[in-house]
C-alpha cells in the first residue's frame, strides 16, 4: 500500500496548475478508496483524467500500469472490473507490449514498479 500511495501522489505534479491542492487531495483519497473497494474501473478513470491533462506524465502512466496489471490479474474478484473500452483507450497504449508476430498484448511485470 505504501508504494501505491507513493505512486499516486507522484501523479499530481506542480506542472498541472489546473489541479488545485484541495482537489488533488480529494482525488488521491478517492482513488485510494476506490482501489480498497476493488473498484478498479473507477480508479482507472481518474488516472485517465490526469492523462487528459498531461498525456506524457510518466508517473500517471506508471500508476495506470500498476492498477491495470493488478486488476487484470484478479479481474474476476474486482467489484468493478476494468472494461474492454478502458483497456483499449489510446492513453494506455504505452503500458502494453505487443508481439509483432501474433499481436498478443501484455503489461510487463515491472510496469509501474519504478515509482
Provide a descriptive summary of the structure in words.
This protein has 115 residues and is mainly α. The protein has helices spanning 2-11, 21-36, 40-53, 58-73, 84-87; strands at residues 97-98, 105-106. The chain has a two-stranded antiparallel sheet. A hairpin with a 6-residue loop joins strand 1 (97-98) and strand 2. Helix 1 (2-11) crosses helix 4 (58-73), helix 2 (21-36) packs antiparallel against helix 3 and helix 3 packs antiparallel against helix 4. The longest helix has 16 residues, at 21-36. 27% of the residues are buried. The model has no long low-confidence stretch (mean pLDDT 75).
- Could you give the count of β-strands? 2
Radius of gyration: 14 Å
Kindly state the percentage of residues in helix: 40-55%
Q: Beta-strand percentage?
A: under 5%
So what's the oligomer here? Answer: single chain
Indicate the low-confidence ranges by residue numbers.
none
- Based on secondary structure, the structural category is mainly alpha
Structure annotation, total helices: 5
**Whole-number average pLDDT?**
75
Largest sheet, if any?
2 strands, antiparallel
Order of helices and strands: HHHHHEE
Strand order of the largest sheet: 1-2
Coarse shape:
globular
What is the first-to-last residue Cα distance?
Answer: 13 Å
